[in-house]
Give the backbone structure.
Amino acid sequence: MQSSLTPIHTYKPFWAKRFGVAPFLPMSRAEMEDLGWDSCDVILVTGDAYVDHPSFGMALVGRLLEAQGFRVGIIAQPDWHTAEAFAALGRPNLYFGVTAGNMDSMVNRYTADRKIRSEDAYTPGGAAGKRPDRAVLVYSARCREAFPEVPLVIGGIEASLRRIAHYDYWSDKVRRSFLVDAKADLLMFGNAERAIVELTHRLARGASIAEITDLRGTALMRKELPHDWRILDPSGTGAERESADVQPGRTAVRLPAYAEVSQNPVAYARASRILHQETNPGNARPLVQRHGDRELWLNPPPIPLSTAEMDYVYDLPYARAPHPVYRGQRIPAWEMIRHSVNIMRGCFGGCTFCSITEHEGRIIQSRSKESVLREIEEIRDKVEGFTGVISDLGGPTANMYRIACKSREIEASCRRPSCVYPTICSNLNTDHSALIELYREARALPGVKKVLIGSGVRYDLAVRSPAYVKELVQHHVGGYLKIAPEHSEENVLKRMMKPGMESYERFRELFEKYSKEAGKEQYLIPYFIAAHPGTTDEDMLNLALWLKRHNFRLDQVQTFTPTPMATATAMYHTRLDPLHRISGADPAMPVPRSGTQRRLHKAFLRYHDPENWPLLRKALQRMGRADLIGSGKRHLVPAWQPATEKTRVAGVNKVQRSSTNKARRLNK
């Protein structure tokens, strides 16, 4: 591994620094020529429209490399049917960097029911179909076609979450690591600033990408394993290989091979468990997984950025606008975040259905208060359409800012998958005072009328600080606050690694108390997940009854989508629980996999929708709960069916078909 840790803002800039800062990173040869460039050092290919803002991954990486002195070009949403678009900026001097964009392309393109979406928020006009399935693989193939000899680096959330052999929900099979299928030289996982800065400087100094094997947060392929490493096989009989050449501290852990995990659910569940035990950058060891006749080697996760490094990244000279080529076109994702500020990264919640921890890590990386306030002032002064309202001040979570383990030593040795489940760790500092101070200073800035927090509050943490809840509720809620209990039933919540409903009830009490004190009528909007692994029909019925008791009628509901590498996805695929040690005799957990059962679970969340009543009545009768069918307060659905527009049209069509058939018989 890297022997020293160089802060990313202390590297000596590359010679091309003399060209200065580009108003936008170029997307055409004409723009390159206007900047005085004859070539790009790095070309970044992305599945998103290019918006020059730190919330868009390629803009952040591009501006970071520009600050290091490199000339960076952007190829955004290229036509992937030929290599022509990938050659538009010429041959990059150092490498191509490829990402699907801010979202996994399959999640972006398909619903939880595997139906193709009609919109893409990261595309001008919200148009669908501007990126291919598994975009990283397609873009990589076209880069190789355009310039076969140029090094190829893949990254972003799609590659990051597909860095090992993984279950793919859309094809319903286990696929190889994307590094193998993309035929890339390196795969970067997690937040890659540290690795990409070091890689780019080494290549600029003349190193070959084949010899760069020690960067944290990278994966590479090897024909042979290094002789000075000990390889442990947790699922076997101990050490796979011992050697006299092994150096102290050099131990890697073997995952079950692709050939095994693709066929054996037990092996897949074990691989998932091992992977999640090796995610703490303080103690994680390299991982090895056999793919055919080669070895996939994953270095340990990246060391989190310091506050000074985070400030450096977010203080770069972003234009904070879409590239001029999109002028006059609306990009929904940009509209959503244009007046919001990201204050932190990471999440120590460890929810099994979520990919934040697997991608960004468990250790919170926070910006300084001063950096955040500077960005708010930039939004106020530079971003078109600002009316004085900061739409969100948060990150993956709203209230983990500057929260960390009380001990660096304990943090570096911990292997808990969550700092807050099953209970909040006694070593976790839950002080919200830094966040309260940030809120107060942000809303006091001249020209700022309101700073909103719309969602992402981890309420089991929040109730540890009633002063924070009061500050949030009385000053930063715009009428509604979205929170995520996810379910009401304990046996489902434990599969999710989410707190019980007691924490929700305590938060609700504080929310209502402080809203009343402020004389405000405000509401909590809870999120729930249907069809999560471990959920039975009875669990969803109990959740529906809980919703009815609390008079919740949800408009938007989500059905569990098995995303690559999540623990819950391993549960979905294997029917086993990787949260516990796996044996061949583990009982299978209930997993709603069929389309019919997944639709039923979603229908329970929208028990009030007449279109769901026929399905729910049938299910209640099958479950022996026909007592819940009727028109009383204790009933879930009525016995009658209203004539909705859909059923009315169907009835008219039926009458018309009957009349037509009768006329035909008479004519005969």
